[in-house]
Amino acid sequence: MPDAVAKTTVTCTVNGKQRTLRVYPMARLLDVLREEWQLTGTKEGCGEGECGACSVLIDGELVNSCLVPVLQVEGAEITTIEGVADGDRLHAVQEAFISSGGAQCGICTPGMILAAVNLLERVPDPGEAEIRTGLAGNLCRCTGYTKIFAAVVRACQRTQAKA
Amino acid sequence: MRSFLPAYDLQAPRSLAEALALLEREPGVWKPFAGGTDLMVLFEAGALPQRKFLGLWHLSELRDIEVAADAVTLGALATYTQILGNATLQREFPLLCQAARETGGVATQNRGTLGGNIANASPAADSPPALLVYDAELELVAARRSRWVSYQGFHTAYKQMDLRPEELIGRIRLPRSGKSWKQYYRKVGTRKAQAISKVCFAGLAEVEGGTVRDIRIALGSVAPTVIRCVKTEAVLKGQKIGAAALDAAKAALAEEISPIDDFRSTARYRLRVAQNLLGDFLLQLNASTLKNDWKRHATYERFDRLP
Question: Which domains does chain B have, with CATH numbers?
Fold first, then answer.
């Protein structure tokens, strides 16, 4: 067996709560979220940055958590699917995915919702091309995407009606 | 098979000076690790030859994009998202922005860095063809002595570079030529997002009255390194754009590139596409005046048949 390296301490904020962990520095953020902190809403699809199922937000930016070694999130603020709703009140994007039928098997859904939430934060009133670009890194093998795009459109209509 | 996690070390120095001191002390031991969008894929596949990594992500010294009168200088850790958000790059270096836009998706663009794309040294990388036609220069920083080199020639063979063990890529400088280039970029892959190129083409040209005054052409995925096609450029310089010039240039290009068969495409397809992209580039340079000439050209017959 090769020599083991020392574990290191990583501190970050996850869904508003500060977390500290002793961990091997190259551990994937995805594995830490799921296996150390039991945040299993984040899914593993391909494990190589192609599918977006493991998408989370780091300091407000969309990332594939399978490609982020945990050492890189020292001091960062992370949002996972568990942190998108406000308590029992779902986010407009989550509501829209339900009402538009944007979720089927559910494996892509957490990543897809985070990509959509991030898109609407950057571009509050996206056109179709912007929605396609914003979600281009998230693959869905069930819906054919039409209902997902419809959900994003509905979410942004709802957000704007409120504003 | 997955890598055995406890066997892999990743250090995160707090400053560039600290990182360079470590490289100076233990040259060749530490592999630089920026956004990780490629290295983590190899890690998960158990295909990383190195065991010790020097994490650069938090080095703020290498992150800024500076615009000066004569050049735009990008820190090696500038991400694709930063590139896309820079107005000067959008206006004057659109090929780099297009490469950034067509690399991965939003999540990859947030993490992938320009310096990482260069140092990863893949011949299929998307930003290097743009950097080559813009005559980019690289600052190679080290604890004791830093140097500037031309990006052309930096990649010496497949995955090999003119980078010493104690050096890091610090900054990438793009001279502002002030020329009114016509600019062309085309990445051919299986889809627009997320795919790795089968062929990638970047071109700049200065055209006057249908004649090529100056031209720069670079391609990715058609040789052991990304390649600036100087012989093809020489064939076209001073020529009237037309079928004769295109035929001569296509022949020169075929001599200059050396595509291979691999899991992404075939040598034959890559050669044909590279030549067709060259034709498309020339067509964009002078579509109106030479329409009839083009119509007789085999490459464009199929365009006429399109609805």
Answer: 5-55 (3.30.43), 61-175 (3.30.465.10), 182-302 (3.30.390.50)
H/E element, B141: strand B137-141
Architecture per CATH, domain A8-83, reads as Roll (3.10)
pTM of the model: 0.94
pLDDT digits 0-9 by tens, B143-167? 999 999 999 999 999 999 999 999 9
Residues from B contacting A (CB-CB < 8 Å) are: 3-12, 33, 35-37, 40-41, 43-45, 51, 53, 55, 57-58, 81, 104-108, 110-111, 192-194
Residue B8 near residue B53 (C-beta atoms within 8 A): yes
CB-CB neighbours of B88 under 10 Å: 14
Quick check: A77 contacting B, CB < 8 Å?
A: no
Per CB-CB distance under 8 Å, the chain B contacts of A64 are: 37, 107-108, 111
ipTM of the modeled complex = 0.96
Cα separations (Å) of B105 from A63, A139, A144, B22, B69?
Answer: 10, 11, 18, 34, 32
